[in-house]
TrEMBL record:
Signal peptide range in chain numbering: 1-25
EC number, UniProt record: 2.7.11.1
Ranges for domain Gnk2-homologous: 22-125, 131-238
Protein name: non-specific serine/threonine protein kinase
Lineage, highest ranks first: Eukaryota, Viridiplantae, Streptophyta, Embryophyta, Tracheophyta
Record carries keyword Transferase: yes
SUPFAM superfamilies listed in its UniProt record: Protein kinase-like (PK-like)
Compositional bias segments (type: Pro residues): 243-259
Transmembrane stretches, start-end: none
UniProt topology in membrane: Single-pass membrane protein
Domain Protein kinase positions: 209-529
């Protein structure tokens, strides 16, 4: 017989214990209030609507932010690992409505319906373990043999905790049953928010598990929820038993110990810098300092490094599917956007990548994108929006203007970077737009030509969008996918590559656009290379600057360089 939970639950926060009788576990933080017509409430509504309208249900885990400080809103939604897409969407929708009613003016709140949790705040809540507040529900039925229960329950929870903590950055969830005397079977479930590290997930679930004897010793079931992890056990099946993992195979027969230790069987990727590279030392140190302080499921993870003697090695997590320039998958676009959003706004650091391109987007075994290669990245102050560099990012030396123009025209360099050596978060947005257009077209920008007329990818994409023939741009392999989604990706890509920096969207807006079905998109303006007057002016400016740097070169070489620039413009 299935036993229901009592409506009486225990709520623990710090040293306080309260008895409450809610219909669902909800908590309104006392960390600040907002008014109904405030910017914070408008940002909150936009963020929650984006979650509800998200039809992709990627991983059942969402971590979004929207707006600018002090009205910026952060939100996390997590669906139970065994929830179907429709159950997930319905749960998040109901949780959004209920939480706004329960906490109508609080800037920070959290709720735990049956198959999901929803949380929002005016502070960053991403990649942070929080085991308080803790809500503890318990089943009103008692077991006849408490010791027998604990002899089965505790080892089962230990197995679930280790399996959950060992999950990946998109899924930290485990469930399993175990046979027991008298009460036949115990069913258990454990989950962490996937943005936690293995150590943080293990720590959170250990804290919750250690509380079970104090609260619910001898009870037939219990449910324990915190912002970062939750545990549930019952003597009846509260989930579909068919989703349980198969039983573990028997342990292998003992084998002789290895002759030496270094390897634990983990696959790794090693990046080795050339010993002749003059920038190797600075680039590798820059990458070590930055990547070691960043943790996100859409950023490649640094495992170690070597700076001994002449060796310059970086050791990364192994991503078996290589880089994005070998694959064209529309489903990776959102992951790249999320990784950039984390770098720009949601991490404790503010990072401008400066070398974002398809070959620096790696794909793991599940085709999840990982942003890599932070050797050229720059760390910004939180209130800094733009930077300058005395060295152009390209490996092509700044000696001949036409070479710089070729790199800008065929690569990822934004106009403000190429012409004025200025970079900002909007430079990364430009790079992202180029990647999106490449993915949709199924071709690299630097090899894209249509009927030998010299059109680059940006030019061609704009003309097709302007003429209402955007489907001509789409890779035939993608034409079986959702036409609406692909057209939206092209639209977003063109918004990101606009010449005017201020008109390009932020990555927060890009993520919302990708996940919203109702959000209207602005009309993109013409990209850089179609504006003759502006382009000619900028070309002459670069020619003037570069002439100063190569004063020893002949006048003939300068004329030839100028002629080549205008040939590439047409």
């Amino acid at each position: 017989m299935k036993m229901g939970h009592s409506r009486l639950l225990l709520f623990f926060s710090a040293a306080l214990i309260h008895l409450v009788i809610p219909t669902a576990a909800q908590y309104c933080y006392d960390t600040g209030n907002y008014t109904s017509n405030s910017t914070y409430r408008a940002n909150l509504n936009t963020l929650l609507a984006s979650m509800i309208n998200n039809t992709k249900i990627n991983y059942g885990f969402y971590n979004f932010s929207f707006g600018e400080a002090p009205d910026k809103v952060y939100a996390i939604a997590l669906c139970r690992g065994d929830a179907s897409p429709s159950e997930c969407r319905s749960c998040i929708s109901g949780a959004s409505s209920d939480l706004l009613k329960a906490c109508p003016n609080q800037k920070e709140a959290i709720t735990w319906p049956n198959k999901c949790s929803l949380r929002y705040s005016n502070r960053s809540i991403f990649n942070a373990m929080e085991a308080s507040p803790l809500f503890a529900f318990y089943n009103t039925g008692d077991v006849s043999d408490v010791e027998a229960l604990n002899n089965v329950l505790l080892p089962l929870l230990n197995i679930l905790r280790n399996r959950t903590a060992s999950g990946n950055s998109t899924h930290k969830f485990a469930l399993q049953s175990a046979p027991a005397q008298n009460f036949q079977t115990i069913y258990g479930l454990l989950e962490c928010t996937p943005d936690l590290s293995k150590l943080e997930c293990n720590s959170c679930s250990q804290q919750v598990q250690s509380f079970i004897p104090q609260c619910c010793n001898g009870k037939q079931g219990g449910k324990f929820v915190t912002p970062s992890c939750d545990i549930r056990f019952e003597v009846y099946s509260f989930y579909d038993p068919s989703v349980e993992p198969p039983p573990s195979p028997p342990p292998p027969s003992p084998s002789p110990p290895p002759l030496r230790k270094f390897s634990n069987g983990q696959k790794i990727a090693v990046k080795r810098l050339s010993r002749n590279s003059s920038q190797g030392e600075a680039k590798i140190k820059n990458e070590i300092i930055l990547v070691a302080r960043l943790q996100h499921r859409n950023l490649v993870r640094l495992l170690g490094f070597c700076l001994e003697g002449n060796e310059r090695l970086l050791v990364y997590e192994f991503v078996p599917n290589g880089s994005l320039d070998r694959f064209i998958f529309a489903c990776t676009i959102e992951g790249i956007a999320r990784g950039l959003l984390y770098l720009h706004e949601d991490s404790q650091l503010r990072i401008i990548h400066r070398d974002l391109k398809a070959s620096n987007i790696l794909l793991d075994a599940n085709m999840n994108p990982k942003i890599s290669d932070f050797g050229m990245a720059r760390l910004f102050q939180l209130d800094q929006t733009q930077g300058n560099t005395n060295r152009i990012k390209s490996l092509i030396p700044f000696k001949q203007t036409y070479l710089i123009l070729i790199h800008m025209y065929s690569g990822y360099m934004s106009p403000e970077y190429a012409f004025h050596r200025q970079f900002s978060m909007k430079s990364n947005v430009f790079n992202f737009g180029m990647i999106v257009l490449e993915m949709v077209a199924g071709q690299k920008n630097n090899t894209f030509h249509i009927q030998d007329n010299g059109d680059g990818l940006v030019n061609y994409a704009w003309k097709q969008w302007r003429d209402g023939t955007t489907s001509n741009l789409v890779d035939p392999a993608l034409r079986t996918d959702s036409t609406i989604e692909i057209m939206k990706c092209i639209h977003i890509g063109l918004l990101c590559v606009q010449e005017n920096v201020d008109k390009r969207p932020t990555m927060a807006s890009v993520v919302l656009m990708l996940n919203s079905e109702s959000m209207s998109l602005s009309v993109p303006s013409q990209p850089t290379f179609l504006k003759d007057s502006r382009t000619r002016s900028n070309m002459l400016l670069v020619e003037h600057d570069s002439r100063k740097m190569r004063s020893t070169q002949s006048k003939t070489s300068s004329v030839q360089a100028s002629e080549m620039m205008f040939q590439f413009r047409s």
